[in-house]
Structure formats: structure tokens, C-alpha cells
Specification:
By secondary structure, this protein is of the alpha/beta class. Helix content is 32%, strand content 20%. Helix 13 crosses helix 15.
């Protein structure tokens, strides 16, 4: 079957230069604090239009409520064609505010073709957050409509940030592109992105970089004893892969290892999902896509750290060769798993992938996975569930997440949960006892494969994929945790 080709291009021309001819600006984006008077930054434009902005503010027609967007036609021949006023609120803007307000402003303009768009509220944003403005602008330009005959988002020919440095622009570009890389991979249909094509995408992405890529095919996986990954992929005509990305720029320090669950489509296997639950299962590789996004950012920014990225990739399908309920799998580590639900497959893939991670003798392992619906029941759709064997390590990640405005909440890992994943016929089983504490028992399963190494498990099932759009981004993949993990690694 020949698949359609995506026709959506997110190559946006970003600049820091200003223009001497204001009339060549299609849209000027400015900020308005929540106050009773017009800020000095809008004084010249107000004067050219005969105090038109002052009248709008005084009459309450133009407000500075945070996140409120107002588009105005400019009543003068010498100014920009349109003015987009972004409400900045009363308090100081956070890094998340800078990211989301810029993204919302740009996204509101993508309904029709635009020429030059200038973002001119950087003076109201702390300098250390300027890169977040650029990243937000780029993420606004990425959507899930990859295969519409006519692109639903019409990108401007240029987005200019006159008050930013080139360094901040370049850094923001990398962060935005890395988030979009993760989102694009998740949004691709499962017939386009499967284990082998995922691996090829990664190889192409890092072809001209110092980040090396190694791919284990089904034969190498068998040689390495990765029977758990092979079992999950055994029902598919598309065999599994394991991708290893190595960014080694930190001298002799032990590496950080990032591990991503990469189930490129999850039918549930013989424990078949109903159709409604299967529709969005192309997103079940969001953990692996996040790892790729972070590694891309590290590579492009030249971060001086040793980081290994691992993606365990499989397609969980139904056939006569599918792994079965009651099967016992001997993993790469030697531990045995009793399979009691083939739809609890992500943790089985991660069992082998985490064991590969241990071979690098890391100072920390972070895994990301769209692992359990139970985590969404506990925390909702916008919060990442975190579980760990090392509180100090998790506190570092929580601090990085707070700085980026991404939401994480720790769930307990009490010892009494251990008994819930013990099997009567094998070392462990791949589901807990009943439906209670499902996110925690899944983490307890994974804990069996990290030994005593510092480890944090991030269950991103809720925030990795959105059913509804928000002002600052489209529905579909979100690229959650790319910013947080980049910030943590850099710090």
C-alpha cells in the first residue's frame, strides 16, 4: 500500500533584525500589561493614529488581561498593516508565560497567509526567557494536520524578534525544533512510523552530527537476549528495533541514560482494545519520541554532557504468532515475566531496554512512557506521574519542570506494592493485583530492571497527547518533557 506523503512544512524564517519601513510589517505583535494607561512602547503608534489606542484602553475595549488577544487594523499609512495586542497581566511573566503567550499570538495568525510578523514585547520578558518566546513561536507552527490536501496552518514568510540577541534566537529555534520533532513523530500514522522507519528517521536526523546512532534489528535483539522486546513485537509483520543514540561530550563522567517506550502502535495484542481505545494508539511511542527530541536539542546546542538515549521499539499486533496470556518470558537480565495481559506491553518492552541502559553504568536513568491509563485516572490529562528509587534525583527533575512550567507529581513507591507484581510461576507478572494503584504497580515492575541505580520513571500517558487544542498549540502530540529534561541535563 502506497502511503500519502506529508505536505506540511514547518521551516519558518526566524530573524532578529528590525525594519526601517514599518509599512512592510503585516502584523506587529505587542504586549499590553493589565493597567489603566497605555505603556510607553505603544506611544509612537498611538500618536500616529491620533491617540486611537489610548481611547480604546480608556473605554475598556482594549485590555491587558493575561492571554487575551486583540487584533486591530492600523488606521495609518505609515505603520504596520495589523496590530495584535497580547494581554500580559499584572505580574512578572514566567518562562511558561513567555512560551505560551508567544505561541498563542503566532497561532492566532495562521488562518491566512501573512508576510512579515514582528514580535515586539520582549522588553516585558526577562532576558533569560527570550529563547522560550522563539521556541513557543515555532511550536505554534506545528500541527497534527500532516496529510490534508491543503495545509490548515498558513505560515508567515518571516517571524522577526527585533529585541532578541542572535544567541537567544538560535537557542530558541533549537528548542522549538526539538519539541516539534517529537510531536511530528507521534502525529505520524502508524503505517508511516513503525519500528524500522522510526530507526531510519533517527539515523537521518543525526546523520551530520556528533551524535552516533546504533540500531539493533531483530537478529541483534535475539543475540542480545532481548526476548521481551521480541515477544511484544512477535505478532506484527514489522519486527522490533532498539535504537541507541550516544551524545558523549562530557569527558570521563558516567552518562545519563534516557529510555523511551516506543510501541509504535498498540492494538492490545490478544487482550484486544476496543476501537475507541485504539484510535490514538499511534501515540504509544511518545516516550521514545521525547527521547529523540531531547537528544536532538543536546546535539544541536553542543551540550557538554554524556547522554545516551535508548528507544525500545515494537508494534503490538494480533496474529497467530502473537505472545499469549500465560506465556513466561526470560528477559535480557535473566528475570522471568509471566504475561497476564498483552495490553500491558510497554513495561515488557522497557524491561529489556532498561537492562541495556544498565550496561552503560550510568549515574542516572530516566524512563518516559505512555504507560498507564491509571496515571490519568489519578492525575488527569495534564500532569506527569513520577516514581523513583532516588528522591534527590526526582527533586532535581521536579525543579527543572517547575522552571519550565511543566507539571509533575510524585506517586509513592512503598514496599508493600512489591508483592502485587510477584508471580506464582515466574519472578514477576506484568500486571498488578486488580485495578488499584495501576500506575504504581507498573513502576514497581520496572524497578526490577534498574537494580540500585538512581532511576526516575515518568508516566506521560496523560499530557503526551491532547484530544483538544489550546490557544498555544494544536491537539495531538505535545512534546511534553523535552524542555524539562533539557534544562535538567544542562544544570
Amino acid at each position: 500500500m502506497k502511503m500519502p506523503e506529508s505536505n506540511f512544512d514547518v521551516s519558518v524564517n526566524l530573524t532578529v533584525g528590525s525594519t526601517d519601513q514599518a509599512s512592510t510589517i503585516d502584523v506587529l505583535i505587542v504586549g499590553l500589561p493589565d493597567q489603566d494607561s497605555l505603556p510607553p512602547s505603544l506611544g509612537e503608534l498611538d500618536r500616529l493614529g491620533g491617540s486611537w489606542l489610548t481611547r480604546l484602553v480608556e473605554s475598556g475595549q482594549l485590555r491587558g488581561n493575561r492571554g487575551e488577544l486583540t487584533t486591530l487594523g492600523v488606521p495609518t499609512d505609515t505603520g504596520p498593516k495589523m496590530l495584535l495586542v497580547v494581554g500580559l497581566g499584572e505580574s512578572e511573566l514566567s518562562r511558561l508565560d513567555a512560551f505560551e503567550l508567544t505561541a498563542a499570538a503566532i497561532r492566532s495568525l495562521l488562518d491566512r497567509p501573512r508576510g512579515r510578523v514582528e514580535v515586539r514585547f520582549a522588553d516585558e520578558v526577562a532576558t533569560e526567557h527570550h529563547d522560550a518566546m522563539v521556541a513557543g513561536a515555532l511550536t505554534a507552527c506545528e500541527g497534527q494536520a500532516l496529510y490534508r490536501s491543503e495545509p490548515s496552518l498558513k505560515l508567515p514568510t518571516e517571524i522577526a524578534f527585533p529585541n532578541l540577541s542572535q544567541e537567544q534566537l538560535d537557542r530558541g529555534r533549537v528548542i522549538g525544533e526539538s519539541i516539534n520533532q517529537a510531536r511530528r513523530m507521534v502525529n505520524e500514522p502508524p503505517a508511516v512510523l513503525y519500528p524500522a522507519s522510526f530507526a531510519k528517521t533517527v539515523i537521518n536526523l543525526f546523520a551530520d552530527s556528533e551524535t552516533s546512532v546504533e540500531v539493533w534489528d531483530e537478529n541483534r535483539l535475539a543475540d542480545e537476549g532481548c526476548r521481551a522486546i521480541l515477544a511484544v513485537g512477535s505478532g506484527s509483520a514489522r519486527p522490533p528495533r532498539l535504537v541507541i543514540m550516544s551524545h558523549l561530550c562530557g569527558g570521563d563522567e558516567p552518562p545519563i541514560v534516557l529510555v523511551g517506550k516506543g510501541v509504535t502502535f498498540d492494538s492490545g495484542g490478544l487482550s484486544l482494545k476496543p476501537s475507541d481505545a485504539m484510535i490514538d494508539m499511534k501515540c504509544d511511542m511518545a516516550g521514545a519520541a521525547t527521547v529523540v527530541g531531547v537528544m536532538h536539542a543536546l546535539s544541536c546546542l553542543g551540550i557538554q554532557r554524556n547522554v545516551i538515549g535508548l528507544c525500545g521499539l515494537a508494534e503490538n499486533m494480533v496474529s497467530g504468532t502473537s505472545y499469549k496470556l500465560g506465556d513466561v518470558i526470560k528477559t535480557r537480565s535473566g528475570k522471568t515475566i509471566e504475561i497476564l495481559n498483552t495490553d500491558a506491553e510497554g513495561r515488557v518492552v522497557l524491561a529489556d531496554t532498561l537492562d541495556v541502559a544498565k550496561a552503560f553504568q550510568p549515574r542516572a536513568i530516566i524512563d518516559l512512557a505512555t504507560l498507564t491509563g491509571a496515571c490519568m485516572v489519578a492525575l488527569g490529562r495534564d500532569v506527569v506521574g513520577a516514581m523513583t528509587n532516588n528522591t534527590d534525583l526526582l527533586k532535581q527533575i521536579e525543579s527543572a519542570a517547575a522552571g519550565e512550567g511543566e507539571l509533575i507529581w510524585e506517586l509513592p513507591m512503598f514496599r508493600h506494592y512489591d508483592d502485587q507484581v510477584k508471580s506464582k510461576v515466574a519472578d514477576i507478572k506484568n500486571i498488578g493485583d486488580g485495578r488499584w494503584g495501576g500506575a504504581i504497580t507498573a513502576a514497581k515492575f520496572l524497578e526490577n530492571f534498574v537494580d540500585e541505580l538512581p532511576w526516575v520513571h515518568l508516566d506521560i500517558a496523560g499530557p503526551a497527547f491532547a484530544d483538544q487544542p489550546k490557544p498555544h498549540r494544536d491537539a495531538g502530540a505535545t512534546g511534553v518533557m523535552v524542555r524539562t529534561l533539557l534544562r535538567w541535563i544542562e544544570s
